[in-house]
Design goal:
Rossmann fold; 41% helix; transcription regulation; five-stranded parallel β-sheet; DNA-binding; WH-like_DNA-bd_sf; Arc Repressor Mutant, subunit A; alpha/beta
Length: 233
């Protein structure tokens, strides 16, 4: 059963939340490890690396953001963050640190289980060979095989998802995509919180636009979504 679904490490200081999530995940065929705080999570991770981590942000001591940061220093294991309603700054910080997705508390355990399965399915998909070794737009350059982006020769600190999103935009200049389109084509999800796309676009603009408040590359198409406009023909 573990081989079919995978092993999930659930990290939350609320025992009730851990127990409910564990039961739903196990019913769906996952093997589950539990940790009640950040220090225990890192120790559990070191002992047995899971296929995915469900990680609460607000925990005493070592919080979820710090745990995410430390995990990303050595691992690209998928991470789904649990954030409280209204904690947009934590959601943004988590995504910036490399989290793959987030679910807002209070949440449906069934939805979380579906989200875990979706993130894992995407993570396990073999990456297709890039159609080109390099994508460029003026001073912006993406080296696809090396998965490195530079702007004016300086390396951009892009997360995995930010790189994928930028590569998709550069591969389809001048085409308007809805957030649902991007969620499907870049994230590989047929459902999910579309504000995830909004947060990633915002973070991407902060890294590639001279004035993120007045973007010239990643344009907002009102009533539709986003479009990438090349700065050079």
């Amino acid at each position: 059963m573990e081989d079919q679904a995978g092993r999930v490490l659930v990290v939350d200081d609320d025992e009730t939340v851990r127990d409910v999530v564990r039961r739903y995940l196990e019913t769906a065929g996952f093997a589950v490890d539990l940790a009640g705080d950040g220090t225990a999570a890192l120790a559990q991770f070191a002992e047995r690396v899971p296929d995915l981590v469900v990680l609460d942000v607000m925990m005493p001591g070592l919080n979820g953001l710090e745990v995410c940061r430390r995990l990303r220093q050595t691992s690209q294991v998928p991470i789904v963050m649990l954030t409280a309603l209204g904690e947009e700054e934590n959601r943004i910080a988590g995504l910036q640190l490399g989290a793959d997705d987030y679910v807002t508390k209070p949440f449906s355990p069934k939805e979380l289980t579906l989200r875990v399965a979706s993130v894992l399915r995407r993570a396990r998909m073999p990456r297709p060979e890039p159609p080109t070794a390099e994508l460029t737009d003026g001073n912006l350059r993406l080296q696809m095989t090396a998965r490195q982006a530079t702007l004016d020769g300086a390396v951009l600190p892009l997360t995995t998802r930010e790189f994928d999103l930028l590569a998709f935009f550069l591969s389809h200049p001048g085409v308007a995509f809805s957030r649902a389109d991007l969620l499907e084509k870049v994230w590989g999800w047929d459902f999910g919180d579309q504000s995830t796309v909004t947060v990633h676009v915002r973070r991407l603009r902060e890294k590639i636009e001279r004035d993120p408040a007045k973007p010239v590359r990643v344009a907002t198409v009102w009533g539709v979504g986003y479009r990438y406009d090349r700065t050079q023909p």
